[in-house]
Amino acid sequence: MTKLSGSKGGNWSAWWGLGLLLACVAWSMQAQAQAELLPLSLDVTGKISKTNDAAHKSYHFTEAQLLALPAHSITTATTWTPRSTFTGPLLADILKIVGASGSAVEIHTLDDYTYTIPVSDCARYGVVVAYSMNGQRLKISDFGPLFLIYPRDAFPDELMGAAGDSKFVWQIKALIVK
Ligand SMILES: Nc1nc2c(c(=O)[nH]1)N[C@H]1C(S)=C(S)[C@@H](COP(=O)(O)O)O[C@H]1N2
Ligand SMILES: [Mo]
């Protein structure tokens, strides 16, 4: 133990300290990357006839359930992203599974933004609840984990501008059928 004191010991503990520091940096980068990629999850409540919770109030989709739904893609630019291919289930399929009977869907997000769209948007635009962009899962900082995508480039008159932009809801966590 006495060999560790003195200048050699100083070097040894400096290297040990550096190693510990690098391990901490690697660990925090890993933790950050995982926090950025939240597992997919979506809660649907309101006017629905199918539920899967104990209270018979909501239908909760897990990541596995969302990934098992038929994947549809929309290729479009948005106000925030260059022309890209967004992929995920159709909002129409999600509404069908929960037996939705309302005429509007109130969308709630992780950042507490709320916006209501008419159910008729599903038929008109084939709205996709996207979990990936160009094959990469959406991180929270990239509008993930779920981003409502409309075919803006195919309907520029209807979907470009402020009214259209507000439909592009990101960080979705829940839907309430009204
Ligand atoms: N999750 C989430 N999605 C959102 C918003 C938001 O604050 N949070 N703002 C909406 C509105 S009202 C508009 S006009 C656009 C533009 O948001 P921005 O001006 O912050 O870019 O994004 C829409 N989607
Ligand atoms: Mo807006």
Description:
- The chain has 178 residues and is of the alpha+beta class.
- The protein has 6 helices and 11 strands.
- A 5-stranded mixed sheet has the order 2-1-11-5-6. Strands 3-4-8-9 form a 4-stranded antiparallel sheet, with no helix packed on it. A two-stranded antiparallel ribbon has the order 7-10.
- Strand 8 and strand 9 form a beta hairpin.
- The longest helix is centred in the N-terminal third of the chain and has 31 residues.
Produce the secondary structure layout.
Layout: H1 6-36, E1 41-46, E2 59-62, H2 63-68, E3 72-76, E4 84-88, H3 91-97, E5 104-109, E6 114-118, H4 120-125, E7 128-130, E8 132-133, E9 136-137, E10 147-149, H5 156-159, H6 162-165, E11 172-177
Parallel strand pairs: 1-11
Antiparallel strand pairs: 1-2, 3-4, 4-8, 5-6, 5-11, 7-10, 8-9
Shape: globular
Structural class: alpha+beta
Helix content: 25-40%
CATH architecture level-2 label of the largest domain? Alpha-Beta Complex
Number of helices: 6
Look at the structure and name the CATH superfamily of the largest domain: Oxidoreductase, molybdopterin-binding domain
How much β-strand is present in the residues?
25-35%
Residue runs with pLDDT of under 50 for 5 or more positions:
none
**Radius of gyration, in angstroms, nearest whole number:** 23 Å
**CATH fold description of the largest domain:** Sulfite Oxidase, Chain A, domain 2
| Termini separation | 72 Å
Number of domains: 2
Largest sheet entry: 5 strands, mixed
Series of H and E elements: HEEHEEHEEHEEEEHHE
What is the typical, i.e. mean, pLDDT?
Answer: 93
Q: Number of DSSP strands?
A: 11
- In which order are the strands of the major sheet placed? 2-1-11-5-6
Bound molecules: the ligand Nc1nc2c(c(=O)[nH]1)N[C@H]1C(S)=C(S)[C@@H](COP(=O)(O)O)O[C@H]1N2, molybdenum atom
Q: CATH top level of the largest domain?
A: Alpha Beta
Pfam families: Oxidored_molyb
Protein name: Molybdopterin-dependent oxidoreductase
Domain Oxidoreductase molybdopterin-binding: 81-151
